[in-house]
């Protein structure tokens, strides 16, 4: 797993440092920003349409951290990230440059009859309801870190489909692969990437039996197509515990684990997210 490079961009002698994990970022990746300073409050950032609160990093003294997820569909361009905080009852502003570049994800070109692209009315209501319920959860935030150790992969097996692969139907981008698929025959134990609270434990049309874990501060890990779920909504699960067994439930062609991440409501590359999250603990 490659290391996240922390770039220090501002440093003052009065114990103030503002750092950013990278100032050139691929779409669907996550950026970590940190401020090390005493006696400040209400630390926030603004990027494009996102407004994100920093959180007190329990792993580092006098440090506030923020996770900035970049959408898969974010325009490739140069941006300005604005950071603000209160100090001595005065609002202070700082700015950083951030360039979003193309992640160069692979494409799958599929040519099918237009009739096959037409939605089936019988399942539209169900999928819309399930999507709305999930998005409401992903956009909510538990305002504390629920984990103490580094994130891990949910199983040790071959990756069969990478995150971000474009699905181009009849020359038009219709979707992309929203997670990382791991090879897993039916009944393979799947473990929690880290500790948190189960927010979804439900059979859904596309993702089948699904477990979603809230790790705190807008971070969610997702485990889809399970044959068995060992936890219910509201349960606290610890890192490494078996949350269920792999399967082929939902809209799939065979058994595997679909593993994905949401940060502040935005779908991101889960393997990159794990690298960034684990850097929260590194000095």
UniProtKB/TrEMBL annotation:
It comes from the Bacteria. Pfam families: Peptidase_M23. CDD domains: M23_peptidase (cd12797). Gene3D superfamilies: Glucose Permease (Domain IIA) (2.70.70.10). Residues 1-19 form the signal peptide. The keyword Signal applies. The keyword Nucleotide-binding does not apply. Residues 176-270 form the M23ase beta-sheet core domain. Keywords: Signal. GO terms for molecular function: metalloendopeptidase activity. This is M23ase beta-sheet core domain-containing protein. It comes from Poseidonibacter parvus.
């Amino acid at each position: 797993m490659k290391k996240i490079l922390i770039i220090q961009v501002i440093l003052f002698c009065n114990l103030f440092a503002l750092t950013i994990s990278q100032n050139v970022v691929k779409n669907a990746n996550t950026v970590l920003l940190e401020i090390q300073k005493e006696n400040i409050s209400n630390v926030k950032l603004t990027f494009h349409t996102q407004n994100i609160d920093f959180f007190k990093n329990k792993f580092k003294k006098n440090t506030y951290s923020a996770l900035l997820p970049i959408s898969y569909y974010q325009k490739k361009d140069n941006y300005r990230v604005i950071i603000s905080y209160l100090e001595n009852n005065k609002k202070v502003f700082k700015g950083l440059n951030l360039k979003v570049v193309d992640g160069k994800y692979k494409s799958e070109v599929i040519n099918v009859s237009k009739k096959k692209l037409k939605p089936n009315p019988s399942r539209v209501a169900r999928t819309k309801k399930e999507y709305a319920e999930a998005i409401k959860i992903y956009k909510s935030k538990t305002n504390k870190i629920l984990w103490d150790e580094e994130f891990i992969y949910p199983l040790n097996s071959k990756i069969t489909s990478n995150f971000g692969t474009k699905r181009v139907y009849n020359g038009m981008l219709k979707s992309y692969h929203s997670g990382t698929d791991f090879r897993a025959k039916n009944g393979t134990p799947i473990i929690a990437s880290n500790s948190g609270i189960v927010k979804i434990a439900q059979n859904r049309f596309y993702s089948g039996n699904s477990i979603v874990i809230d790790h705190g501060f807008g971070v969610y890990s997702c485990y889809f197509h399970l044959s068995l779920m060992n936890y219910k909504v509201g349960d606290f699960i610890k890192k490494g515990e078996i949350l269920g067994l792999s399967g082929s439930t939902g809209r799939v062609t065979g058994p595997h684990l679909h593993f994905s991440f949401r940060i502040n409501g935005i779908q991101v590359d889960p393997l990159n997210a794990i690298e960034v999250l684990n850097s929260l603990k590194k000095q």
